Structures are given as C-alpha cells and as structure tokens.
Amino acid sequence: MPILTPPAARARLRAHLLAARLAGVVATAREESLRSYRGFAARDPRLLIGIDPERAWTERDVIELMADKCGVSADPRCVSGQDVIDPELTLAALEAFSERLAAVAERGAPVLLGTGHPHRLLGFYGALADALSAAGCAVLTPAKGRSVDITTRFGLRTYNLGYVRGVAMVQEPGAPGPCCATGAHTHSPLPVRTVLDAVAEAGGPLPELVVGDHGWVCGAGQLGFEAIGLADTNDPAPFVGEAEGRVAVVVPLDDAVRSDYYRPLTRYVLNRACLSQ
C-alpha cells in the first residue's frame, strides 16, 4: 500500500517542479494549447488520440476542464503567453498515480508501459518497469517488431514496435535495433491497439494497468483498460478521458523538458508506492 510522504519531501519536489519548469510557468505556449482545444472540440483525430468523447465538448468546455485539471487560465480572452500548471495539482495527481502503481504491485498483476515521448520520458517509465518487475509484476512486451502505419504531418509512415527497458515505443524502420534507446515521437493510439490485439491473439495475460502518455494511455483507456499517465497542457484528450471515466489518473506537467529533470518525480513516485529498490 502507498505510504504517506513526509512534508519535507513533498516540499522539495514542489520546488523542483517549479525550478525545472515542469509546473508553474511552463514552455508550452497558450496559443498552441488553444489550437489543440479548438481541434479537440472539432473532433480532429489528431487531437482525440484514441479518446471517443461521450459528450459534445466546446472549446470553452475544454478550457474550463484544463483550468480545473491543470491550472491554466480559464479566461478564453487569454490568448498569448505561456501556460501555467498548478504544482499542487501535479503533486496530487502524482500521489494518485503512485497509489495505482502500489495497488497493481501488491497484486503482482501484469502491466504494460508505453511512451510517445521516448527521448524525454524513457527513463521515467523504464524505472517504473524495473520496480514493478522486481515486485513480481509481469511487464508485458508483445508484438515486438510488428509494423504500424501512422498518419503524420509528412504523410503515412511505417514504424516498428520496439521495447527498451520494458517500455514500448515506435521506431523508424532501420533503427539500430530494439535494444537501442531510439524511438519516434507520436500521439497515435494505433501502437497500443496493435499491442493489445497481439496480447489477445496470444491468449493473454492482458495488462491490469497501462502506464504511458499520448495515444498509449488514451487508446488503452478507451478500450476499457485501467490507464494512468502524464500529459501536457496542449494535450486535452487524456484529461477529457479522465473526466469521462476512461482514464484513471493524468498527471499535468510539461512532458518535454530534459530527461534528467524527471528523476526526482521517479523517486517520489517509487517511494510513495513502496517500490524503491
């Protein structure tokens, strides 16, 4: 079961979130976020990233949701500048995230981890995979090498599914190999659908928890799997999924800072989930 975090540790992480600009004033531009909110309201598949909203979401609805979940400005007349993430919302979500990890570790249940941000977040997810494996969870790695066709701004591209440290990602054809920490940035839900289809075809076991971001968390949540992950202020889909009950926990933070800036979050989550080695 998760443990209470000493106030000093929580305060240190809060200070780090602000200093590293993981929360507080972040690099994400308000203009970029508003474009995403408009696109989501228009049901642009590039912004839905696997979530099929149950209700009609207007741009104003999305702004209000993101203000509530992340702390961005709720004023639609605020159209420029940098987004702001409330660090208290980040901390609260990290604590809920830790509780889900602790619960699955206690059961020794199978898990799946995947990222569309391998260059930034591989270390974070890889440490979780290592800790969950040590706790007796099966870290699933199905569909290695399987091809996935993804529509990008450059047209249709074919990628291959690979795993590094137990974390799924898509790789460019011709990448050095699945053991190399190379991967492509993607928001698509197609990789997680492909992976989950492969698990079902093989007769399981199915993951009892999916951990990731972008299409990994949205695609899994939409299919009914318990899913938790990280998301930036310009990615409303995971937060809508959480609001509608298909995504269990979303942690608001800047998902594109230096990879080493996520290490204190890793320690905090693993300590709170009693998974530190």
Could you explain the architecture of this structure?
This protein is of the alpha/beta class. The chain contains 10 helices and 9 strands. The chain has helices spanning 7-19, 30-41, 45-48, 59-69, 87-107, 118-134, 190-201, 214-222, 236-243, 263-272, and strands at residues 24-29, 82-85, 111-114, 147-152, 155-164, 167-171, 209-213, 227-231, 249-252. A 7-stranded mixed β-sheet has the order 4-5-6-3-7-8-9. Strand 7, helix 8 (214-222) and strand 8 form a beta-alpha-beta unit. Helix 2 crosses helix 4 (59-69), helix 4 (59-69) packs across helix 9 and helix 7 (190-201) packs across helix 8 (214-222). The radius of gyration is 18 Å and the shape is globular.
Q: Which stretches of 5+ consecutive residues score pLDDT under 50?
A: none
Q: What is the helix fraction of residues, given as a range?
A: 40-55%
Average predicted confidence as pLDDT: 94
Query: Strands of the largest sheet, in order across it?
Result: 4-5-6-3-7-8-9
Element-by-element helix/strand order: HEHHHEHEHEEEHEHEHEH
Q: End-to-end distance, in Å?
A: 16 Å
What is the alpha-carbon Rg in Å? 18 Å
Q: Count of DSSP helices?
A: 10
Question: What is the molecular shape?
Answer: globular
Strand content: 15-25%
What's the story with the biggest beta sheet? 7 strands, mixed
Core attributes:
two-stranded antiparallel sheet, 10 helices, 18% strand, alpha/beta, single chain, 277 residues
